[in-house]
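User: tokens in, sequence out, please.
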């Protein structure tokens, strides 16, 4: 839940989070300041020449801006803005010693300037004068305590707000008493908007940041920093807008270091390491001492397995400020982004040694611990962050989730531990354990891996809870499950609507990630990890995993991503289809590798990755150079695509995308063997009621083999047409093809169950019911029909399992369910349990005649087997006309 700048608990509200200066508190001072100076905020003091110099700085001409500012400072202009601009320009170029000289001279002249002293803290730190920086920071607080009469300008009030925000004070008060006041009095002052957005971003409230920056753009749409902050605000929810904002920032200032570093961060995410290297070279040409650039170089060295270089890059990042906690925090965060949580956690610990109050490092360490399965430490750290900073939206969301997770039921099979909703655990918890136990044995043995710690699986019935546990914020609707190494988080079918994905295939996919990430120590490109998981889905069940579709055929021919750049396809894909295609293409690469080089070669690649080799080197050692692999796979993929519906034509030239039915039919008549023409004919004719003609068009496609199990595809449409035409045999045949190619063809399976019951093909009904439950175990019909099939097949053990699950779904006829359970338990020679369920049936329906008769029969058998006496006793106990149902209804009516 987002609570922008609002306190989440009464105890925190009572605490008031006072910041004391001597005997004075933060709140009285800021109220006095804000009230006293609300009407006296002066307008800008800048002259035209200053504005021109500032424009030089904004556009990235830092040396030119510094020259102009230095000349004005030398002339003795009585305006601290020139000193401020000169210092910022020098810092931007890494001329830290010159910035220090300038600051020392300026602060003697402007000793009461809060903005200048705040800038001076950064200058002192970048000159590795940490002790002096702390004294300067303390001096800011001391000046606030001593005097209030000198802090009237808008610049000073914004600087004061930043001071209190950095001290961890009440974010809501900072917003109201400083930034809001300035914006109300000076609505055209950009810095107040930027400070508000920065505060929101620091607290994880991206919505407030985006809204504030949208208003700021109306004030000044030519500031690169504004658009850089916009990119940060939109990055988590709208990558298109984020990229657009970043482009605008770099158009205004191609040397804007923050924006370039933002690009570097995302290039590393995409595994575009050459791109990251090139951008880092550009940053270091601007500022050769930029610590974040050296930190990113340390990350790249780690990812390449160059650990000695990593240490040198980290040392370079700390060379200008040895106690800089941001260096280790950044390196650790990026390693955690690459699922190297253990290494990332160690860097966060180093950051906290340098600054024990570094909230971002504390929270990142909390998340690392939770993803490593060290829940006790992780939750404790997260709660500490919230206690210190109740306005951190991400931390608050995570800690709030803990109460719900604590209410989950814990199940286990061997070293696999599952946490899930108690009700869902009753329904399909045993099936989850059975599947994971099978996968644990098969997959770990196949890839020669043995986990040294338990595997944790958490299944969430609420998608928002899954997103918060996984990403820290609501969102991530396209994700069904995520694996962090030995922790799996997954959405349950309850969170996915009427057509959920197959939960069995999702868990199998994520468990395979546990295997491959474990074997490589999380040192593998995303495409390979995803590709193996999808490939193993198909190996487990031919209907699972991504498979060829007409759209994928086209993309393989026209939009194939080279293997060397395949991980980038997973980050910022143009559409959901492109993301799914990335999974499919990756699995096709794995299939190609195994077909051409064998499973041992793939295992060798994984082993080399775990030993620290880069992916290209690991591939070269086991299967060949990456450039050759790109060419070979391209040929392989195109052959696979061309074999799909090879008797059909696939051109869409002049296809009337928004055409009328008449236009579609006219285009199609000229192309009788075109896939898209046949699809168009089928849809138009079906809408016109010509179901036979529609079915004939789809049968042509079916005969070509251009079939997939996709929703709304050829097979689903064709089955529906045959049902309408009442051609049951053809319908059944097409349904079988459909469910054989789809992991989540729920409507098709339910229809097949109906047909199987009519034919009394109970073996097939049982198999179809089990596939239904692999998709939606919370749907009663799957358990009902499975119990019925098991009864007909004299399988009392399966009857008990199905009825137990059904009981957790609040059935209408609970008495009838307990009666059936009693009979099955009796068949399993568990008389005590059987009798208990029989009595439970009678407790719900005291006049349940069949239950009464059965009870009497059992009691008679236990004493003196006499069928006539048992019948008489049943008549005496239940002299009514109840019939076979528990409440005067048949069992089927009860449902």
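Assistant: Sequence out:
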């Amino acid at each position: 839940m987002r609570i922008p700048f609002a306190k989440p608990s009464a105890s925190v509200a009572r605490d008031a989070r006072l910041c004391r200066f001597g005997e004075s508190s933060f709140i009285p001072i800021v109220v006095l300041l804000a009230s006293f100076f609300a009407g006296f905020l002066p307008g800008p003091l800048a002259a035209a020449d200053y504005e021109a110099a500032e424009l030089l700085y904004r556009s990235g001409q830092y040396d030119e801006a510094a020259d102009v500012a230095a000349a004005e400072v030398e002339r003795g202009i009585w305006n601290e803005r020139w000193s401020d601009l000169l210092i910022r320009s020098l810092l931007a170029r890494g001329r830290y010693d010159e910035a220090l000289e300038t600051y020392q001279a300026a602060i003697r002249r402007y000793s009461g300037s809060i903005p200048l002293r705040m800038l001076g803290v950064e200058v002192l730190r970048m000159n590795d004068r940490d002790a002096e920086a702390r004294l300067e920071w303390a001096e800011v607080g001391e000046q606030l305590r001593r005097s209030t009469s000198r802090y009237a300008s808008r610049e000073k009030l914004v600087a004061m707000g930043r001071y209190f925000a950095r001290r961890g004070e009440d974010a809501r008060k900072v917003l109201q008493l400083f930034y809001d006041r300035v914006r109300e009095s000076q609505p055209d002052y950009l810095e107040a908007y930027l400070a508000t957005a920065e505060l929101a971003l620091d607290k994880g409230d991206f919505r407030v940041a985006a809204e504030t920056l949208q208003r700021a753009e109306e004030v000044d749409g030519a500031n690169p920093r504004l658009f850089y902050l916009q990119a940060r605000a939109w990055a988590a929810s709208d990558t298109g807008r984020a990229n657009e904002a970043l482009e605008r920032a770099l158009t205004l200032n191609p040397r804007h270091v923050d924006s370039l570093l933002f690009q570097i961060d995302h290039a590393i995410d995409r595994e575009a390491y050459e791109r990251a290297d090139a951008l880092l070279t550009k940053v270091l040409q601007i500022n050769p001492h930029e610590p974040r650039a050296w930190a990113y170089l340390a990350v790249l060295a780690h990812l390449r397995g160059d650990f000695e270089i990593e240490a040198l890059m980290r040392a370079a990042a700390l060379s200008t400020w040895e106690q800089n906690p941001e260096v280790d925090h950044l390196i650790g965060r990026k390693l955690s982004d690459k699922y190297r949580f253990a290494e990332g956690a160690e860097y966060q610990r180093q950051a906290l040694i340098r600054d024990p109050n570094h909230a971002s490092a504390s929270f990142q360490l909390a998340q690392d611990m939770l993803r490593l399965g060290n829940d006790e430490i992780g939750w404790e750290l997260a709660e500490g962050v919230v206690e210190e900073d109740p306005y951190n939206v991400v931390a608050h969301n995570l800690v709030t989730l803990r109460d719900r997770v604590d209410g989950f039921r814990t199940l286990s099979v061997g070293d696999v531990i599952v946490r899930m909703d108690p009700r869902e655990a009753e329904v399909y918890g045993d099936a989850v354990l059975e599947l994971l136990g099978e996968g644990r044995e098969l997959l770990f043995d196949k890839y020669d891996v043995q986990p040294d710690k338990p595997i944790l699986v958490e299944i969430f019935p609420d998608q928002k809870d899954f997103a918060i546990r996984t990403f820290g914020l609501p969102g991530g609707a396209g994700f069904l499950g995520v694996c962090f190494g030995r922790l799996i988080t997954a959405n349950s079918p309850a969170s996915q609507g009427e057509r959920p994905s197959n939960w069995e295939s999702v868990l199998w996919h994520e468990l395979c990630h546990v295997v491959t990430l474990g074997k490589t120590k999380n040192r593998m490109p995303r495409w390979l990890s995803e590709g193996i998981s999808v490939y193993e889905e198909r190996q487990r069940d031919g209907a699972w995993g991504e498979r060829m579709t007409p759209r994928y055929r086209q993309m393989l021919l026209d939009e194939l991503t080279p293997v060397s750049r395949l991980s980038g396809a997973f980050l910022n894909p143009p559409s959901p289809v492109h993301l799914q295609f990335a999974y499919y293409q990756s699995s096709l690469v794995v299939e190609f590798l195994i077909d051409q080089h064998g499973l041992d070669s793939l295992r060798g690649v994984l082993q080399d990755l775990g030993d620290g080799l880069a992916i290209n080197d690991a591939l070269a050692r086991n299967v060949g150079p990456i450039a050759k692999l790109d060419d070979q796979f391209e040929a392989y993929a195109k052959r696979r695509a061309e074999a799909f519906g090879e008797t059909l034509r696939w051109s869409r030239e002049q296809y009337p995308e928004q055409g009328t039915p008449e236009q579609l039919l006219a285009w199609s008549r000229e192309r009788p063997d075109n896939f898209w023409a046949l699809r168009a004919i089928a849809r138009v004719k079906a809408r016109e009621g010509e179901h036979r003609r529609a079915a004939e068009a789809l049968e042509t496609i079916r005969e070509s083999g251009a079939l997939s199990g996709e929703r709304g595809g050829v097979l689903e449409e064709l089955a529906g047409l045959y049902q309408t035409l009442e051609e049951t045999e053809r319908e059944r045949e097409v349904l079988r093809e459909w469910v054989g190619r789809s992991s989540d063809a729920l409507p098709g399976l339910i229809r097949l169950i109906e047909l199987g019951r009519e034919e009394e093909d109970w073996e097939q009904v049982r198999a179809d019911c089990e596939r239904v439950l692999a998709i939606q175990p919370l749907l009663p019909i799957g358990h009902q029909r499975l119990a019925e099939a098991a009864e007909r097949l004299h399988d009392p053990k399966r009857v008990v399992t199905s009825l137990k699950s059904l009981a957790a779904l609040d059935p209408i006829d609970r008495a009838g369910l307990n009666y059936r359970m009693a009979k099955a338990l009796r068949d399993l020679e568990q008389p005590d349990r059987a009798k208990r369920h029989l009595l439970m049936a009678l407790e719900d329906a005291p006049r349940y005649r069949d239950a009464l008769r059965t009870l009497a029969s059992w009691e008679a058998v236990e004493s003196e087997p006499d069928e006539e006496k048992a019948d008489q006793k049943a008549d005496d106990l239940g002299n009514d006309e109840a019939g076979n149902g528990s409440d005067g209804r048949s069992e089927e009516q009860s449902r």
